[in-house]
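RETRY 2/3 - previous attempt timed out on the joint model. Re-submitting the same 513-residue input unchanged.
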Amino acid sequence: MKGLLAGVLMMIFLAVSPAAGADTPLATVQMHVNSVLDVLRDPALKGESMKKRRQDRIRAVSEKMFDFTELSRRTLAQSWTSFNDGQKKEFVELYKSVLESAYIDKIMAYTDEKVVFQKESSLSDKTSEVRTLVMTRKAEIPINYRVIRTDSGWKVYDVIVEGVSLVNNYRSQFREILINKTPDDLLDTLRKKVGRTT
Amino acid sequence: MRLLLTFAGIIALLAVPYGVSADTQSDSSGQLSVTLDGISPLTPAADAAGVVAFDINDETLLFMLHEEREQGEERSDNGQMMTLAMADSTQADAAAGEKGSSNGNGTEYEDTENYRIADPLYYWNVSMYHVNDKFYFWLLKPVAQGYKAIAPEPVRISVSNFFHNLTTPVRFVGNLLQLRLLNAGNELVRFVTNSTQGLGGFMDVAKSHYGITVPDEDIGQALGSYGIGHGFYLVWPIFGPSSLRDTVGLAGDMLLNPVTYVNPAEASVGIKAYDRVNETTFHIGDYEAMKDAAIDPYVSMRNGYLQHRKKLVDE
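RETRY 2/3 succeeded.
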């Protein structure tokens, strides 16, 4: 009886552990990066005519991969509190559009580079950093992802390429704007940037 | 070359008495005092970033943001005035962030590191930023694209290896100055291996066959490792973003680069230009992406430079 119980427990443990394993920061980032690479390498999506579809697929991955609200909050840092709820919501949307339109083309330029997932290290009780290396034929480019534990798993809130944090870089730009201008002015700047005039 | 060194020396001499060592960590210095000169007190961070006065040699130099000067708000203190953009993250910012999280908004700012630099030569720097932008789009990029079209990638990688091997003295001394003897030794081993088995440095056999890799050091990084701050931000035409410290480093790098001593000087410049074009072929699109992604490309580049250099110094 005890043996049976132990056996059942063992089976449950074995069944559960791979799922639990896939829930680590590293495994999560790896899964998302690989799904982007799959899109880039998919022969059915090759060519100029499929460009729009590739963009859509990558955008879909980014929606799952990133926590844009967290990313926005960290970018604005203490200025976040001077935005009201409506402004916060619009900021997150506009900022997301800026990032996606700027980086999707850049990502699509990658094809045959290999990505090595090195290690994860804990930053705080709910954040971690996943280190990766993008191997080009000439050099290795370190890209680190910072992730935060949310109700729907680990989400990326910052990407650090060769030591340059995306969040920190935008923070420096937004701060310069917000010194003399209001959140509404900043939103207007972003609207123009993404080509919305409303 | 000698001119550049002299110039760097003059800047260093000018800067030292004023103690403008606005290092990323050095703002706990006692002489920093915050004044609320004409700025409506919004948050402590905005005040700190807005106007900062240093008491030096009985004179109060007023440092203020360039935006204010752009608006024509002339203000002075004891007749001495100097504009200095205190940029990027400040201690006050981090403090405000911590305060925010203790207020229960639940956000930690462990990524709020200090990347700020004085920008007293803002107008020069912005001008040079635009000069370099044109230099890239009108000259460097088209030339690099043309060259890329005729030179296959393995050739360009070999050329890159060759120049990398040639500048071993820079990295060797950079390591020695930081007492990184193992890395310095590895630089030597790599140089000997690649110069011989690597056919004069065109092949990086040290890496491909022996697995020897050494992080690239330079003189600016060595100075940074001594705790010397950037001083202030400085954009050079052609060379791009730099700082007072890294300009001194750059001068040292040049002195340690054998190509500098090629005669005549035109040949030396030509070889360096070729190296630059060759390197650029691997980075076409990077600058464009940065510019495209940025809300304010000048600020983005300044911050990116600081963050990247900090990483290299920390390594």
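The beta strands of chain A are 114-122, 127-135, 140-150, 153-161, 164-165. Closing ticket.
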